[in-house]
Every structure is written in structure tokens, then in C-alpha cells.
Amino acid sequence: AVLSAGITLTGGVDGSKASQPNTDISVKNNVIYEPYEYGIYAFDRGLTTTSNGSTGIVIEGNSIIRAGQLPLATRMGVRGIHSQFPNVSKIHKNIIKSVLGEGIRVFGNADIFGNEIDGASDFCIHIPTDTIFSNTQLDAPISRNICKNSSRSGLLVSGRSIVNVSDHTSELCGIDGVP
Questions:
Q1: Distance (Å, rounded) from C-alpha 176 to C-alpha 35?
Q2: Which residues are registered as beta bridge partners of 102?
Q3: Alpha-carbon distance 5 to 81, whole Å?
Q4: Which stretches of 37-124 are assigned E, i.e. beta strand?
Q5: Whole-number Å distance between alpha carbons of 76 and 112
Q6: Which of 20, 77, 94, 107 has the highest CB neighbour count under 10 A?
Q7: Closest CA to 40 of 90, 109, 88
Q8: Does the pLDDT of residue 45 top 80, yes or no?
Q9: Residues 81, 42: contact at Cβ < 8 Å?
Q10: Helix (H) or strand (E) run with residue 11 in it
Q11: What is each CA distance from 143 to 38, 74, 120, 163, in whole angstroms?
Q12: pTM of whole model > 0.70?
């Protein structure tokens, strides 16, 4: 399988090799058209904790169009934005259109605000059980996102104990009848 993305951020700890966390990195106002798998793939490696994880990550104002629409081959997954940080990353005001998969998927912790996702063939926003960092809460609310025309739910949160959702809009989501 291949992991490819329009933009990739990586940091944290990998096995016995320590690498530096990302600090104060902004990915802003980019246009990513037809990435093979991911528009933006941002993560700390699996042995990273909140004490040695990346901080100050901002993913804002990007446009990701037609992720995963190129001819099929073996893929790890397709997402507009995949975020995997134990500390809060900001995912704000991005536009994601026609993604063959999820619009935004977050393991770990994130502040998800003001994004527009239109035409995801899976969930618009997915915050699954965090099997990587064992984080059970989001430190920031999920707010003012607009999700339209997804095959599954506009927003799915699972395995979390503290999540605040406000001013969220889902329109024509679950159109394939799959929750």
C-alpha cells in the first residue's frame, strides 16, 4: 500500500528512535486538487504522548478537491484531512469537495471549526475511538461546520466521553441509508 498526500506533516516518537515534534506549524490557504489518497495527512507517530507531541498545529483555509478520484489502486484510505495528534490541532475553515472517503478524520485531539465538506462518499467528519493515543475527550468544541451530500453521517463521534458540538449543519447526509 502507498501513503500519499498533497501535504504531509509528521513528528513525534517512533519506536526507539526519537524525532522532534512539530511546533507552531501552519498549513494555510493551499489548493490541493485530486490528491491520490489524502489532501492533508498530519500525524505524530504511535508512541508519542501529550508531553512529547506536536503543538501549535494549524490547518486553515485550504481547499481540497476530488481526493481519491484518480483510478483505483491499493490505498490505505482516502480523506480530505487526516489529523492524528495527542495535543490540540486547529482544523479551521477548510473547504473539502468530492472526496472518495471521509472529509475530516481525527484521532487524538483537535479544534474543528468552520469547515465546509460537500460530497464525501463516507462521513463528512469522523472522530473515532482513539486507539492510538487513548484520548477520550476533545479539548475544543466541534462548531460551525457545514456538511452536505455525504453517503453516511455528517458527523460521527464514537468512544469519547466529553465532546461539545454546536452550530453544526448537516444537509442531505446519510443519503445511502447507511449510518
A1: 25
A2: 79
A3: 9
A4: 38-44, 58-60, 63-65, 79-92, 95-99, 102-113, 116-120
A5: 23
A6: 94
A7: 90
A8: no
A9: yes
A10: strand 5-11
A11: 23, 34, 19, 11
A12: yes
Which amino acid does the sequence have at 116?
E
Single-letter residue type at 178: V
Residue in the block written with cell 505524530: 44
User: pLDDT by residue (tens digit) across 65-93?
Assistant: 999 887 665 556 789 999 988 888 999 99
> Checking phi first, is residue 29 left (phi over 0); if not, alpha (psi -120 to 50) or beta?
left
Please say whether the beta carbons of 141 and 91 come within 8 A.
no
Interatomic CA distance for residues 83 and 133, integer angstroms? 12
The set of cell numbers assigned to 52 is: 512529547
* Set of cell numbers at residue 112: 474543528
- What is the per-residue pLDDT for 2? 47
Q: How far apart are CA 161 and CA 174, in angstroms?
A: 24
Cα–Cα distance measured from residue 20 to residue 136, given in angstroms and rounded to the nearest whole number: 25
